[in-house]
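Hey, I was hoping to borrow your eyes for a little while. I'm sending you its amino acid sequence along with the backbone structure tokens. Take your time with it, there's no hurry, and the full record follows here.
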Amino acid sequence: RRLFFDTHALVCLLEQNGFTTQQSEVIVSALVKIMNTNLDMIYKDMVTKVQQEIALQQVMSHISGVKKDMIILEKSEFSALRSENEKIKLELQQIKKEVMDEITKVCTDNKLNLNLEKTKVKELVSFDYLLLETSQHSQQDRALTQTDRKIDTEVADLKTMLETHKLDNIKYLAGSIFTCLTVALGFYRLW
């Protein structure tokens, strides 16, 4: 072992300060033993370069193995998420088509009902004109107000029905969007 101080110079220094040669050499040898013991303790906790390189290689091999596993997992998870996303898109398109079909059906039904009511009103009006000619003007006014009320209630009913269908469509669309977002966020979190 190398010592990082001059033992002979220390012996001479001790002799100059009143120690004998034998005492100085004993003190220096005791210091050397203490230093060697301390260095042994320090060296036990230290790692050699070779051991450090081996540990580094082991860690790097573990990291590369984990990277390969992550790539494989990512590809399989990504393909599963992609197929799930495609299924959700198809379901969303199907629901959208069904909702649009339902809306057109409701609109055509409402138009038919309005046309029927109009023809009934026209018939009632023509009938009421006959009654008016026979001096029943007050009954005609009542009939007209009743038909106006019927038309107004039918129109209001149609408007509420359209609003409920719109709300149902919005609910389905929002639910589908939130489902897609949840799947995307889940994938993002896993990734």
